[in-house]
Design a protein that fits this description.
It is a single chain. This protein is of the alpha/beta class. It has a single domain, classed as TIM Barrel. 37% of the residues lie in helices and 15% in strands. Helix 1 crosses helix 2 and helix 3 crosses helix 4. It starts with a strand and ends in a 5-residue tail after the last helix. Strand 8, helix 4 and strand 9 form a beta-alpha-beta unit.
Length: 331
């Protein structure tokens, strides 16, 4: 399987693994099972793992570090910083704002290195833009970490095209991470063009619509009581009912192709450009294997267009985030 490049520093398998759901937001997973899944990913060729300090908070980095230490030389680990994290509360309620001050950047990088139990972070993202700090100052601090050998490459998440250009002028940006799927296509408007022009990789998170595009979630009761998705517009009962009809179209396409709906959704994302490396989450090994298998699915231009038209974002009911969370994207 031909690997894909993220900037000039990183080369990875076309489908990575988003690790968040193993310990945060989606109900978590028993640690031993999570470790088995992470190590099996490496066994089948997946070598790009995505985490963040806020996932837990902190627990997910510890899990990833512990699970992957025996194979650290074979893999690429990405983590993210940028939120203020309260010592009080639990889960998402501990996220109390953003903080990308240069002194904070250095401190959180050191903490992530300890939790990941590694000497270097392969890809270090700013998780959300801090409007109180110039992007030049934040990236300048991140660049110092590269010079010190603590970080290999830099990334930004949910950033505007203008901010990306300003950041790249300070230090090369290897990757932009933003939500992107059949149902969330904002990056197509400007970010894709900038990535192609500047040689920047694009890493879609939630490429399966946070599970909706798998065709397995039809009712809120299917989610655990502590699942963060209960707060999202697309997971409200009326939205789920409406969106299930659109997902049924994807399922029909998938059946004709002899693949799962999830695999077809991932294959569609992969066919948008060879600079794209999606990071679907997977807590079960058979889901992990299915996701990795999407890299081998060939689609014609006509199929890509037909699927894209049939599941265009104007057909989805509900925004991808609450208004409060949307205020932090495209910064």
């Amino acid at each position: 399987m031909q690997k894909r490049k993220l900037g000039t520093e990183l080369t990875v398998f076309p489908v990575g693994l988003g690790c968040m759901g193993m310990s945060f937001a989606y109900g978590g997973q028993e640690e031993a099972e999570a470790i088995r899944t992470l190590r099996h990913a490496v066994d089948i060729g997946v070598d790009f793992f995505d985490t963040a300090e806020v996932y837990g908070p902190f627990d997910n980095e510890i899990l990833v570090g512990r699970a992957l230490k025996p194979v650290r030389d074979k893999i690429t680990i990405a983590t993210k910083f940028g939120f203020k994290i309260s010592e009080q509360g639990s889960g998402t309620e501990r996220m109390i704002g953003v903080d990308s001050r240069p002194e904070h950047v250095k401190a959180v990088a050191e903490a992530s290195l300890r939790r990941l139990d590694t000497d270097v972070i392969d890809l270090f993202y700013q998780h959300r833009v801090d409007p109180a700090v110039a992007i030049e100052d934040t990236v300048g601090a991140m660049a110092k970490l590269v010079k010190e050998g603590k970080v290999r490459a830099l990334g930004l998440s949910e950033v505007s095209a203008a901010t990306l250009r300003r950041a790249h002028a300070v230090h090369p940006i290897a990757a932009v991470q933003s939500e992107y799927s059949l149902w969330s296509r904002d990056p197509e408007e400007e970010i894709f063009d900038v990535c192609r022009e500047l040689g920047i990789g694009f890493v879609p998170y939630s490429p399966l619509g946070r599970g909706l595009l798998t065709g397995t979630i039809n009712k809120p009761e299917q989610l655990g009581s502590d699942d963060w998705r209960h707060t999202l517009p697309r997971f409200q009962p009326e939205a789920l009912d409406a969106n299930a009809k659109v997902v049924a179209v994807l399922q029909r396409f998938a059946k004709e192709k002899g693949v799962t709906a999830a695999q077809l959704a991932l294959a569609w994302v992969l066919h948008q450009g060879d600079f794209i490396v999606p990071i679907p989450g997977a807590r079960k090994i058979h889901h992990l294997e299915q996701n990795a298998g999407a890299a081998a699915i060939a689609l014609t231009e006509a199929e890509v267009a037909e699927i894209g038209d049939a599941l265009s974002p104007d057909k989805v009911v509900g925004k991808r985030y609450t208004e409060e969370a949307l205020a932090l994207v495209n910064g």
